[in-house]
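Example record for the data management plan.
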Amino acid sequence: MLAAPLNARFQATVPSHSIRGWPRVHLTLPKPSRTLRTDNRHTIVQGALSDPKVGAPLPPEDPFYNRVTELDFFKEKFSGKVGLVTVLVGHRNCGKSRMLKQLYEEYEAADIGPLFLFINARKTPVRNPDEVANAFTDALETSKLQRLVNYTTSSIPLLSSISINAGLVTFSLGALVSKVFGGVKMVSAIKKYDKLLALLKPLPRKPVIVIDESNNLLDWKESDPLQPELKQFLNFLLSDSKEDRVAHVVLSTSDYFLANWLPQAGMTEDKFKVEVLGDLTEEEAQKFVYGDDVAGGWPGIINLRSGTKEVPAGAKEQWPAIYERCGGNIGLLQQCVAEAQLIGNWDDALQGVVAGPRSGIVRGFKPRVYIVKGGEAPLWTKEQWKMVLERITTAPHHAVLVSELEKDLGDGDVEKGSEILLSMVKYNLLALRPWSVLARDLPREVYGKKKTPVVTLPLPAHVWAAKDVLED
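Corresponding structural encoding:
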């Protein structure tokens, strides 16, 4: 569990009411700066509350909101001993990638730790050995190496006299030399990274390797089937984390099937731990949309505008309908408000939020129309899909224990039911959610006394859509 003192660190400057369960305090906030900045709790925009009709312009990227507890969890984790690989999963658009990027930016800005490699596999794919080599080569750009050299020599001056070939570059600690090699093969890149990480082992803080959108690995294709390299790549991540303890490794994804695929690919369950980044709680979500009513605090996305149109009237009265469809999903909430502003009414905006998820729910009744994924056709029937939807939409918090659904899907044959359930997860119809200290959107009781995994639909909009489809 998270350490209790987390909250105490913020009480002097910010109200702690935005995280459910933390005590309320009402203190005067420091005067917000003139530029977008990240406070301990929220991103603050100067003047955003002064004139709601005008609204504050959106920054180039969406502002970061209210993930301080999760940020502190990973900062504490990365400051300690290296252990298991972390597989970070979460709903699409829950703010997972944004949080990791914020963590990366804070590390870079504050010069925390020797090295933070952030690989966005959506932009730099990792689906084969050559792509992996290119991704890791690109991640270690010259500026990062210069920072690495400066950090290392200031932490352990003795290392400044050591000269090595780190592989991707050749440098003498204390003075960056040389060139970045092109066309490095994966095996060669791994060996060179191993040398670099081994050299940094004496440092009190270890390097961090994050692969965002790591579900790209599910589409892995060997360049030479006679010499498979996927397991070698996974072994590299394992040896650097759990075995040699020279780097923290995080695999981030919105595909819940990844955690079930990794053991089949060579990374067994005892080598990694799944953490789940949940959606915002209802209280947090409401503040995210409308603001926290604190001078200089979070203005609410209805006051953050990129265009000239105003958000339609009656925004607060729409909250029950908004939350029913969007839940606490940051991406859905942003989509709903932006759509309402663009088209000028809430009814069409709310319908637009659930249109895609509704199509997905309907498609689930036609398993034969799916393109075969991973060499395996869908295993469920339309009757089984209907049963699953009925179970989830009527369950408390729309979460059902995995063990219960496996039994129902297999008509008592748990192994058969497990295969059918995993097939639905593989085709992104369902999400498997283990208990995680980071996920506050589901109460602990839904996981049962033994905190076993539960099954949910991928997004809150899917729950609304499923209810609507079942009524037809």
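Summary line stored alongside the record: Residues 68-277 form a domain with the Rossmann fold fold (CATH 3.40.50.300).
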